Amino acid sequence: MGAGGRLFVRDIGAGPPVALLHGGPGAQHDYLLPAFRVLEDEFHLYFYDQRGGGRSQVPQPRKVGWRDHVADLETLRVDWGLDRLTIVGYSWGGLLALLYTSEFPDRMRAQVLVAPAPGWGDYHRSFRKEFLRRSQSPEIKKLRAELEASGLRQSEPARYGQRRFDLSVAAYYLNPGSAFDSESFVVHLQAQQATWASLRGCGADLRRKLELVQTPTLVLHGRHDPIPLEWAEELARIMPSARLVVLENSGHVPYVEEADRTFGEIRRFLREHTDS
To answer: In terms of domains, do 153 and 232 share one?
Structure first.
């Protein structure tokens, strides 16, 4: 149960508790589950669909803001019976972790930010420009043309739909071919747009708060992420207890492109900062 209504929650594994925050906003946890459940042998993982996405629909998605997401996470912390949270946040989920940390620093134990979305500055505009450039690259254009010429639309509609999705996210990857057979997801645009709109003008305040936060933080960022590496570098520089690991062979999806390195770093950090 979240602050604004019922949230879909799934927990798996055993061991120290870790909350997993998916990207979006307006998406759902399912696409992270196949990769991140590798941690269930060692940790008790809490997944949930954030307000306005997946199976956590709300009557007025146009009114969902970042404070609602933070309030939901705080309510879940209480529901889970946890004094403090350990969080692994991916993309927007990484920014949500930062927002929660800035509001409730005493209720945080540690956090891992995997390819976190930008919280201030001109980084969003840079990301959009780079993502569009990559989406129009000769390699991705060639893959789209090959798909349309393949006959899959008529012979195997489901496989064709999967390939269409793969190519819609291919610009997130260092190697566009790595996007094939991606875990698909749906983004509910009203919740997504409302959440981003609610963050306008909040960046300077968020930055000031994070400069004072002592929460142990691991930032994992692909060198070839369309989200500028400079954002992750600035974040790690201003947070007193943050450490940045640059993943040299990854774009925005390091848990696919460099899975062994990504989960190795996550495991080491969580072992150090969670109760056994």
So the answer is: no
Alpha-carbon distance of 106 to 108, in angstroms, equals 6
DSSP states along 191-249: HHHHHHHHTTT-HHHHHHHHTT----EEEEEETT-SS-HHHHHHHHHHSTTEEEEEETT
pTM: 0.95
Phi, psi of 39 (to 5 degrees): -85, -5
d(CA 217, CA 118): 16
What's the domain range around 170? 126-179
Q: Tell me the pLDDT tens digit for each residue of 117-155.
A: 999 999 999 999 999 999 999 999 999 999 999 999 999
Neighbouring C-beta atoms of residue 113, cutoff 10 Å: 30
Cis amide bond preceding 176, omega within 30: no
Q: Give yes or no for a contact between 21 and 241, defined as CB atoms under 8 angstroms apart.
A: no
Q: Which two tokens mark 10?
A: 């799934």
- 4 within domain boundaries: no
CA distance 172 to 165: 12
* Residues 43 and 82 occupy one common structural domain: yes
Residue 181 in contact with residue 74, Cβ under 8 Å? Answer: no
What CATH number has the domain bearing residue 203? 3.40.50.1820
Nearest CA among 45, 101, 33, 37 for reference residue 70: 101
- End-to-end Cα, the chain, rounded Å: 27
139 plus 152 within the same structural domain = yes
SS3 of residue 103 by DSSP? helix
